[in-house]
Design goal:
Length: 120
């Protein structure tokens, strides 16, 4: 049984002595880490059991979707400690970082735009 199927591209790269094209997963991981760090930054300066639990949940979130759903929990953790205005400010800073990283099913619908030209 073969573990990897040879195909024309792999054979051509092998013949030419070139490295195979690298994965682009590091680009997605870079965006994930940027969002994670921004969310963790929102917890800086506060302590407590709930903060420690939230910190662990953010650190061990496996993908961008998990971080997306943790935004509300982050907000709920910050409200009693820093107030609703500061918690909202953190959320407003973090939410745009998800731009272009979420699957279509999680993207917020955009408001319909008015037509440019109206027929009178």
């Amino acid at each position: 049984m073969r573990w990897n199927k040879p195909n024309l591209r792999n054979n051509l790269h092998d013949l030419l002595g070139r490295d195979k094209p690298s994965s682009t997963a590091w680009v997605r991981d870079q965006g994930l880490e940027e969002v994670r760090q921004a969310m963790l930054q929102g917890l800086m300066g506060v302590s407590g059991c709930e903060v420690a639990r939230m910190n662990m949940r953010l650190r061990y979130a496996g993908d961008i979707e998990a971080l997306w759903y943790l935004r509300i929990d982050l907000f709920d953790t910050l409200v009693p400690l820093r107030g609703e205005a500061v918690a909202q400010k953190v959320l407003d800073h973090v939410t745009p970082l998800f731009q272009g990283q979420l699957p279509l099913s999680l993207r917020t619908p955009q408001a319909p735009q008015e037509p440019r030209f109206r027929n009178f």
